[in-house]
Every structure is written in structure tokens, then in C-alpha cells.
Write a structure and sequence with these properties.
336 residues, 3 domains, two-stranded antiparallel ribbon
Amino acid sequence: MRSVDLIGITSSLGLTQLVTEPTRVSSTSATLIDHLYTSSRSLVHSVRVGTPLGSSDHCSLHTILTLAAPRHKQLRRNMWLYKWANFTGMNEFLEDTLKGLCDATLAVWEKFRSSVCAAMKQFIPHKAVNCRRDLPWLTTKVKRLMRSRDGACQSAKRVNSAEAWSSFRSLRNKAVAALRKAKSEFYSNLSKQLKTLKDFWSSYRSITREYHRVPHEMSNGSHTATSTLGKATLLNDQFASHFTPAASVHPSLPPPHRSRPTLSSLCCTSGDVLGVLRSMRPKVASGPDGISSPVLRACPAPPWQGCSTSPCPQAGFLMSGSYRTLHQYTSPVIMV
């Protein structure tokens, strides 16, 4: 390859050559034959040409990179200790706080949610714990073997006998074999589980442990988009470039449709609301509102008397027109 062609290729790809000194030096010539290309100059701290190794005329290349190891942020959640909760005091607090609500539905809901969350923190002892994010193929059997392996390793280091080390190696081999078998079975059964798009993304997040959604900013190299329509257009162009001939021109996305679907109001008595609250399962995780089922079951009477419910769309799908029923909510939106 000619040097002109190499320079043209690297320039078109946005790469920068960082080695500027000759790397092969003889009595009659000095040539630069070692190249280091990068698209991000800030990641390279320094580049230095060292002395030749042994009797060779080829110099060594020393490079220091500024790279940070990726760290997954540890998620934390509150563990509520309902055994020592003061539900009587919380009931009185909510009765005084939620008295006379007569504003718009969203304002009522925000007042209701913030009041209940404040009452939970004040009257229910709680502690912050780390959320476990284990890989899906780490079954209980595999974890038990791994704990036995670690214990045998500590024991072998303490005793330092041939029998102890032999026991550790045996448990280590069993743990490795069980882990490989569990991982193989997980991937072999994965095709049976991926029946919908939701199943695909749930499995993807459990494997990669990446729970973020669409990034705030997207770029294709020449254009950067931050709005919803701009990001959708970039994705449309990307997919169309793979499945559409280069000569054709694909149409742009239509303007967003702003009309919202409507649903008639649902009226129910206070007995219906209390019945739904009492029928909620206590041992389930709270929803995005952070209100747990035991709290709603323990304090049903004063704040929810004489209220009617308003239908709510699914979280994140306000424009789709799909609605949940009342019993599918951790806590219903109320309208006094």
C-alpha cells in the first residue's frame, strides 16, 4: 500500500498517527515502520520510542493509555421493617395531611404519593440495602458450590496440607463444571423464552446488566440529535441504509401525532376501592411510586373514603392508548 493511500484512509476514518520518530535505525537509514492510530487523542497519555532490543535494529515502542475500568453503579433500595412500624401514627398523619383534596387529578396524585412516602419514612423503620444483580445462569446450586469452593480454599491456605489442597481442587473443578453446564442450559433454553420483544429486552438487560434506556444524545458521525424525533430519524436512516438500495431515497418520518386517546370515567364506591386495597398481595415489590402494598393494606380507611378512580395509561406509553385496570396498580390514582 502506498503512503498516500494510507494517509487518505486514516484521514477519512478520523484517525491520528501518534508515532513521529523512526523505529528502525541502521547505519545507513532510519525508517518509521511502527504506527499507532487513534480516534481519541485524549486517551493516549504519551508515546515514546525506546532503545532497540538486543542486537536488533528495531526499536521498542512505549505507550501509556488513559483508560478507566468500567464500574457498574451499585443500586440501593430501602428495606421496610413492618414488624416495628407505627401504623396507628401513620394513619393519623395521613388523615390530617390528605384532608380536603380538591385539585386536579395529577396534583392530587402527587400530593397523595409524597404524603404516603413521607409517612413511610417517618413511621416505618427502614434500612438501605444493595440490590443483587446476579447473572441469570447463577443458580442456587452453583452459588452453593462456589461458596464451598471458597471455604475449602481458605481452609487449605490455613492448614497447608496435601489433603486440604486436593479437596479444594476437587470442589473447584465441580464448581467450574456446574457453572459451564448452567450457562450452556440457559442459552439453549433462551430461544424458547424469547417469544415477544419484551422478553428479548428483559433477557438482554439481565445478561448485560445494562438497564439504561435510549441515550439522551445520539450521533451518526455527522449529525447529533437530542430530541425524540431527531433520534428516531437517525435510527430510521441507519436501518434504511442497510435494507434499501443506495440509489433509492427513503421517506422521512411523519410528524408526531399529538392527539391523546380518551377513556370514559370509571366510577366506583369507597367499598370497591377498599376491597381492591385489601386484596393486594403483601409480598410484592412496590412500583415506580415507591408505595408498598402492606402500607395500603394497613391504612385503608381515612384517606381513601369517598373517592373515585380515574383510568391511567401504562407508564411510558401515554400515547399508545393501552390502559391498566385498577387491581394492576400498586396504588391507584384517586380523585376526591
